Amino acid sequence: xxxxxxxxxxxxxxxxxxxxxxxxxxxxxxxxxxxxxxxxxxxxxxxxxxxxxxxxxxxxxxxxxxxxxxxxxxxxxxxxxxxxxxxxxxxxxxxxxxxxxxxxxxxxxxxxxxxxxxxxxxxxxxxxxxxxxxxxxxxxxxxxxxxxxxxxxxxxxxxxxxxxxxxxxxxxxxxxxxxxxxxxxxxxxxxxxxxxxxxxxxxxxxxxxxxxxxxxxxxxxxxxxxxxxxxxxxxxxxxxxxxxxxxxxxxxxxxxxxxxxxxxxxxxxxxxxxxxxxxxxxxxxxxxxxx
Length: 291
Known about the structure:
Structural class: alpha+beta
CATH superfamily of the domain at 53-143: Elongation factor Ts, dimerisation domain
Number of helices: 13
Radius of gyration: 24 Å
Helix content: 40-55%
Number of strands: 8
Largest sheet: 3 strands, antiparallel
CATH topology of the domain at 53-143: Tetrahydropterin Synthase, Chain A
Distance between the termini: 44 Å
Order of helices and strands: HHHHEEHHHEEHEEEHHHHEH
Oligomer: single chain
Mean pLDDT: 89
Strand content: 15-25%
CATH architecture of the domain at 53-143: 2-Layer Sandwich
């Protein structure tokens, strides 16, 4: 019988999954040094060496199952791996796990059981077999009412994924809104969602710009009203001009004209806001030749 503390120690030393560590210790009669070699021979412990690498590529994907929907971003180091069938299968497994479990945090998701142990174990295992650092960055699970409609759109083969929930209207309208959001990159669904500190900062910048342009101080507040509305048109889905509209109709008005309103928008763009490793291709080739 292999103790839990020994499994934990081996996992900490190798970065391998709990189930792999247990198998290694069982195969090596609980000898931790031999178990480390066993994991290395199987190509499993190399996952730990990739832990400090930057994974800013990957896939954003969506799964809808009845009134439940899940959207996830899973990162890899290169976009080449994101096109790998094994990586795509991993993303699919993660989405199915989110749908079938009551999960709200990454810790809860990572602890979910799958055939390979847990989701965390599966990710470590795939990191080893695929050969790149893999990590689940974020996910959202939504349960809608029967009167609501999901709209989904995947752009650039999973570079951008958008999940929309409309109250009323229909799935076609919801998909049109999702396509718009993929193209126009709104940061918020509606103006009321813009954090006060973000809006105050924008107003401060606008005010300084107006003063530098020589606008009279007593007119700045009234000019700011128009500028704030313009800002909302840039960053809020409802306030943006609908990309398919010929009459400059706003997205909220387009949805309303089809008997609905926008309830939720989740937009994931792979790697947004993450540091990306800059590679010099010529230097990389030279390293490989000289190495």
